[in-house]
Amino acid sequence: MGKASQALEQVLDEHGISQNKLAVTMGISRANVGRWYHGLDPSAENIVAVTEALQQINPDAARQFVNLYLGKIVE
């Protein structure tokens, strides 16, 4: 499991965000989110899209996803 997948799994679980909610917000199929959740790292473009969708759903979840994936390199 890649670092982005681990971060996504943790954020969705801790914030009670369903894979379907993320998929609907992103305008993609739940199956795509499921693949990321279960170990396939999303592409760089999709990491940006995940972050933007999480920002809409829960800004704290978006911040946590970025921090878990990238660390605190911008703070």
Outline the secondary-structure elements:
Blueprint: H1 3-15, H2 19-26, H3 30-37, H4 44-57, H5 59-70
Helix pairs in contact: 1-5, 2-3, 2-4, 4-5
Helix/strand structural class: mainly alpha
Distance between the termini: 26 Å
Indicate how many domains the architecture comprises: 1
Q: Determine the oligomeric state from the structure.
A: single chain
Helix content: over 70%
Order of helices and strands: HHHHH
Description:
The protein is mostly helical and 75 residues long. The chain has a single domain (3-70), classed as 434 Repressor (Amino-terminal Domain), CATH 1.10.260. It has five helices and no strands. Helix 1 packs antiparallel against helix 5 (59-70) and helix 2 (19-26) packs across helix 3 (30-37). The longest helix has 14 residues, at 44-57. The radius of gyration is 11 Å and the shape is globular. The model has no long low-confidence stretch (mean pLDDT 94).
